[in-house]
Amino acid sequence: MNDPRQQPWLPELCRLPRLGAMLGLAELVVVVVALAPDGSRHWGLSDFLSASGLALWLALAVTVCLCAARTPLSRLPEGPGTVVAVGMTALIAALCTGIVHALYAVLDVQGFAGVVGFWRFTLGCATVTALIVALALRYFYVSDRWTAQTVANARAQADALQARIRPHFLFNSMNLIASLVRRDPVVAERAVLDLSDLFRAALGAGDGDATLQAECELAEAYLSIESLRLGERLQVQWQREEPLPWTLAMPRLVLQPLVENAVLHGISRLPDGGTIVIALSCAGGQLHIRVQNPAPDPHARALPLMQGAGHAQRSIAHRLAWRFGPAARMTGAWADGYYACDIFVPVQ
């Protein structure tokens, strides 16, 4: 694993969205200056276009230089490195604006640069550029750190789900398999294989994405083991409306924890058991997954169980939002003796 201290701390500007943001900030400064009610002079269209060209040129030059110097600047401590980066942008802006002012003087052109003294024009542009770059770097730095923290939280929650699934299955399933070895070795062998598949998937809970098909197979393996324990009390009904995006990338351990909640907090708490309905459909560019099961009144259940179910659902909702953005939704509600959990994710 890479040491976080070896990762560049300077924000990455070598991406089109970041370049677009820098160009947009430069143009925004020109618009603000042009609209400022100082009464000094009237801006014509040619002045505005010339100033826009200069601002965009400065933004492009500064962004490219910071992109190229990201690695060496990141070798410095953050404080001194930031001062060097901002100072470098001020120097670049001073050189570029000095060249522009000299061209105006040589060509004897009257414009937004020609009517301002050399040092005022050069140092003023350099100062404004340095301030804008400092604000942009600060914003991108905070944004990158927030993104890294969100990824770390998602990974930690996936690891928490992974840790929660191990003890629950390990003891109950091994006792079940031990009781089946002599009575029904074929069923015991199938249970061992299902358990092996389940834990192999759980071991990679925080690493990369799974697919819709892999999530369904994991849920089937879990239900196969639990059906041996609960017998006729557990019935499963799969409703698949083809075509379905079986190769859609999804975070790991999304469907299985919902099915586990349906068994632990629903089926296993009812004397007669019940049927878990798992419905999958895709319409309008959106995948819909529904897990529905009979369940006792949640207000009459023990608080620790309610907290356990809620933790799993919050973790899944958080990881879906991180993977798919605001287009992903997850809802869960109890009504008329049934608990239903719905997941909506865009099909990309």
- DSSP helical segment count: 9
Give the averaged pLDDT, no decimals: 79
Q: Rough shape?
A: elongated
Number of strands: 7
**From the alpha-carbon coordinates, what is the Rg to the nearest angstrom?**
30 Å
Helical amount: 55-70%
Please state the structural category: alpha+beta
Largest sheet: number of strands, sense, barrel closure: 5 strands, mixed
Low-confidence stretches: 1-5, 302-308
Binned strand content: 5-15%
Q: Could you tell me how far the N terminus lies from the C terminus, measured between alpha carbons in angstroms? A: 30 Å
Query: From N to C, what is the helix and strand string?
Result: HHHHHHEHEEHEEHEE
Strand order of the largest sheet: 2-4-5-7-6
Structure description:
This protein is of the alpha+beta class and 348 residues long. Helices cover 62% and strands 14% of the residues. The chain has nine helices and seven strands. The chain has helices at 16-35, 45-68, 70-74, 78-107, 118-183, 185-203, 212-230, 255-264, 303-324; strands spanning 209-211, 234-240, 249-251, 274-283, 286-294, 329-335, 338-346. Strands 2-4-5-7-6 form a five-stranded mixed sheet. A hairpin with a 2-residue loop joins β4 (274-283) and β5. α1 packs antiparallel against α2, α5 (118-183) packs antiparallel against α6 and α5 (118-183) crosses α9. The longest helix is centred in the middle third of the chain and has 66 residues, at 118-183.
